[in-house]
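Hi U.,

Before I forget, here's the chain from the pilot set. I'm dumping it here mostly so it's searchable later in email.
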Amino acid sequence: LLRDSTELDWDDKNLTAAHMETLGMLLVTNGLPRLERIELSDNQKIGAGGMPSLIEGLGRLALPSIEDFDVMACNIGNAGAATLAAALSRGAMPSLHTLDLGGNKLGDQGLIALAAPVRKLPVLAQLWLYDNQIGDEGVAALVAPGEGVLPKLHGLELDDNKLTDQGCAALASTLSSGAMPELKMLELLSRYRERDDASNPAS
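Structure:
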């Protein structure tokens, strides 16, 4: 039965914003009380318009069992990021362990909106932000000095973005200060560059 599901694996199903209305209704009315994972990656038609339908109605402590929220390559943009940030700020998904937002054109504006609520997630361990047109401003907001700089984070993917030396310096400064003490994996290098280097070894 759908109500007893612990995982929704709807990757690459050609889902649209209209489909998110139905799923959002189930989430808001606690129609999926045991749900631990939402996998919606590679559904480009969800877009920024689908995010309000999916999560706008989530309030404090909504979806308390969700550990994995994956909307990789769903074209949510900075507007969708702002909708997600608002839901997290209200206290939704307090047990979130893995958040995959890769390939969504968030830009600095999207990450700036997400930074404060994401930093407050108490058990967040994996944060995927690759291929999002994020620059130095967005990263600076995420790792700015202050209370609760991702204390449980194990993995952070920022590859295929627009970081310069300035953004990398902000990351280095944060790590040097003792923040993010659990971090074991940090990805900054373009995966496309890695493939190019592998196929064109230096002579």
